[in-house]
Here is the input.
Amino acid sequence: MQRLCLLSCAALLAFASSTHAQTVVSANDAHSILQNGVQVLPHPLKPDSLSFLARTPDGAWKVRTSINVPTSVIGPPTALTFSPDGKILVVSAASKPDPEAGKIVPDDEITVIDISGAEPKIIQRVASAPGATTLRFTPDGHHLLVANGKSGVLTWFRFDGHNLSNRRVISLPVSGFPGGLAILPNGKRALVSLWQADKVYTLHINGDQITVDPHPLDIKPGPWNIQLSKDGHYAVMGMLGHGEGLPGALSVLDLSAEPIREIQRTPVPNAPEGLDISPDGQYVAVVSQNGSALSPTSPLYHDRGIVTVFSFSDGHLTPLAQAPGTLWPQGLTFSPDGHDILVQGVMDRSLLTLTWDGTQLRKAGETPLPGGGADLEKTLR
Here is the structure.
């Protein structure tokens, strides 16, 4: 009994230590699988979860501990985010199961989790708007911005370090599934991509106030996940397309231009999802579905996604390496030290670790997740 207590205490201390340093988390959707290219409920139905990850001695990352938290594969794989101080984690759910009806329905739930103590602790659940997906804190940590794809609106919350409040609904000039979000380092501007409308809107932030610039960047097909360079000079955005199974692309936007403009587009395999810029800013990695979300009877179907890595310099992408990904991939992130690239799979419920040395991708291992990997994020604090 004493030995068990010591082991338990050691695990809690390890968790507390890691949350104050470098944390990688996976949000896992257990209520969505694909059947002939259509999302349906699995049987038996299990709860969604949030997993805290750790690198093992053999180099592969795996689940260290998990808690039950609603989440969803719908939307870009960016439905979780850390507060700027790294003490709070916020997770959204764009969909949920309706077991009685036997189908997946929209959800609006946001879960706030305190990860500053010995164990992760859920401290708040609030409603956003139907289809709550990408979440982004302002750099000062005083507000949270949420893209709500299904309802076509943004929501804007105050944040006091623990709780969200004063929800405001922000309408956009056109409908079109707001999905990707990015807030610039100065906290005065943000971007939102409208996947179905093929537009990117600029948002202006002034304290509690946020307004939408009426003149968007028209860009197609299907602007999706948005990631920023550290200085906020450039944005790299995945062009998802609209389900045709066609090749995808990455678009580089110059945010210092007025208005913002696209300065490069480079092809990637079908439907880019998870997208990240390395901690040192030198590389961009993206995982594409590569037809793995299509019906297996489709001539465009493949049973694996594809990971592509680019060098990134002065706003220019140059392809460097590719490797097989997961089945119906979603989230992708560099490890906090930049030496690994982690990729989630929904259908195979797996976490793939690829090592990256600046030249080559090598598979270090593949470990199970408690649900379909839907969103992936890290903090460097």
